[in-house]
Structure formats: C-alpha cells, structure tokens
Design brief:
The protein has one domain: SGNH hydrolase (Rossmann fold), CATH 3.40.50.1110. Helix content is about 45%, strand content about 15%. Keywords: Hydrolase. GO terms for molecular function: hydrolase activity. It comes from Hwangdonia seohaensis.
Length: about 230
C-alpha cells in the first residue's frame, strides 16, 4: 500500500503533466492586464483597397504612421490585442473581426505576448491563424516576426526571454518559406540598434517606430501595386 508521501508525489507529477499538456494544446493563460482594440475604418466605402494590420502594442504605435502614409491609397484598419497564438480565445477574437469585414491585404504580427505558451502551443496555432487570414485577404497576407526583447536593467544585453522570441521567429521563417508567405523581418532590422528602444527593453521610441512603419508601408504598397513616390 502506497504511503501518503508517495501519493502526494504522484499527484504532483500528474498535475504537472496535465498542466504542460494543456499549455501545448492551447488554453487561455491570462496576463495580469488583458486588452483588445479594433479600429475598422471606411466600412461602407469601397473606393480604396482595404488593409488590416494585426498585432500588439507595437502596432498601436506605428499604425497611425502607416495609415497616414497610405491615406490617399488605402483604408487602413487595425486589430490589436495582448492575446497570443497558443490561446484559443485569440483565434475566436480574430474570427469575429474577419467575419464582419473583408480586406485586400492583412499584415499579421503576434509573438511578444504569451510568455507562458511553449513553442508547441504557439506553432500549433500559426497555420490556424494563417488559414483564417488567407481566406479573408483578397490579395495577400503579410507575416511580421517579433522584435527582440532587451534587458530593461541593461539595454546592452538581451533579456533571457529573448530566447523564446528567437525560437518563435525561427519557426515563422520556416513556415512562411514553406508556404510562400511574405515575411517582414523586424528582428534582423532592429534587434542590434539600441537607439530604437525605450527603457523597458520591449517597446520602441519614435525612431524605432518610424523604421517599423516604413517596413510595413513598403510591403503593403508592394502588394497593392502602389507607387508612393
């Protein structure tokens, strides 16, 4: 007969395995503060092509610049959230937006949030998200990888969690290449320039935001065959 100590150990092991399995299969693991914002413009006006920019707080910062850059050429909307791939609720949120509106080009970036989701859960939801986006976008889906995370106490160093960002970006590089999906490499274009970072090591200052906006604008213009000069 098993003693209480052995039974307790077995229970802990079982619960640990279940918890890890749940994370890999995809469950909702909330951050302390959750937020979601959608801003869909010119819903009843079809004169200009429609663009949707999906992402997190980085999109919140560069969306206005991209929308201004394309003001005479396209109607730019946004959907931003703290939810991460790996969380089934994120897919439901995305579905809700795409059920109501259609777009010509969709730019998609998701990867900085969801620290608790292992690569198994994150990667499982990448093709699910892409299939949703691809069914909606009339012309193109543009994938955007994640920016590096630096140590807020020493911006000269990358934060320990940056290893997760590299792992996710590596998966995205392979996935987009295999499926012939345009990929904007935010990481390579910004990771080694300290002048782009704010003191938190995650967000960008105006100079960094301008670089992001330029990369997004150029790729959207390319997909819409626009000459912005």
């Amino acid at each position: 007969m098993l003693n209480k100590g052995v039974l307790l150990l077995l229970c802990c092991l079982i619960l640990g395995c279940v918890n890890q399995t749940d994370k890999e299969n995809g469950i909702t693991i909330n951050e302390n503060t959750e937020w979601t914002r959608s801003w869909i413009v010119n819903t009843n006006d079809s004169k200009l092509p429609k663009v949707l920019i999906v992402g997190d707080s980085h999109v919140e910062r560069y969306y206005g610049i991209v929308a201004s850059n394309l003001e005479s050429y396209a109607s730019c909307s946004k959907f931003t959230t703290s939810k991460s791939l790996g969380d089934p609720i994120f897919i439901e949120q995305l579905e809700l937006v795409l059920k109501q509106y259609t777009f010509d080009v969709i730019s998609f970036n998701n990867g900085l949030h969801g620290e608790d989701y292992p690569i198994e859960a994150y990667s499982k939801y990448v093709p699910i998200a892409y299939n949703l986006l691809n069914k909606n976008a009339k012309k193109s889906v543009i994938w955007v990888n994640s920016t590096a995370i630096r140590d807020k106490n020493n911006l000269n160093e990358f934060a320990p969690r940056n290893k997760q960002i590299i792992e996710r970006n590596k998966y995205l590089t392979n996935f987009t290449k295999e499926n012939n999906i345009p990929l904007i490499d935010f990481y390579s274009n910004t990771a080694h320039n300290l002048n782009y970072y704010t003191n938190d090591g995650v967000h960008f200052n105006n100079e960094g935001v301008k670089i992001e906006a330029t990369l997004i604008t150029q790729e959207i213009a390319k997909k819409l065959n626009l000459n912005l000069e």
